[in-house]
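This part of the workshop introduces the protein records we will be handling. A learned vocabulary of local backbone shapes supplies the integers on the structure line. Getting from the letters to the tokens is the skill we practise here. As an example, a complete record with its sequence and its structure tokens follows.
=====
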Amino acid sequence: MSLDRSIRWRGLDPVTIEHCHVISTARDTRIRSTIITPNYGLFYRIKLDDAERVRTVKLERTDGAVLELFSDGAGNWSDDRAEPLPALRGCVDIDIWPTPLTNSLPIWRCQWTIGQPQRFSMAWIDGDEMTVRRDDQIYTQLDDTHFRYQAADASFERILELDADRLVVTYPGLFERTA
């Protein structure tokens, strides 16, 4: 994937604004973004390897809270003190709340067949609490621009509209692209 692009989203519930920049080359992908929420500002950066696997993620909030994680790209994670995080074993991708950007990570990384669901174990990061936990998710490509996103426990489902770079345009009820 080759990409050098800025994107903006507006969060709908709660109301947020995000400005994100993605630079992707044959060597790696680097993502830097800032989100303004009603309660805090959040800066995050993600580095993916040449196979689009998450290798590092760092979140910093304006109140000083920091969360930094490292992955070997094969589903083994550690924190900023190099302490292993066994609860995340097998998670290759991350999902950060409150951004739609991380929905693109498994979509970029995998081969897709329309109508064929794929299940992912995600390292789900809550920017409100600055915590991380395992979360199983299912994605199904519906056509060239739409993916169904489902929580594995069937508690949540949305049809995501994506652009040609497979970045979210519309995430019904939560996010919409502004630029």
Remarks:
- The first strand starts at residue 3 and ends at 12.
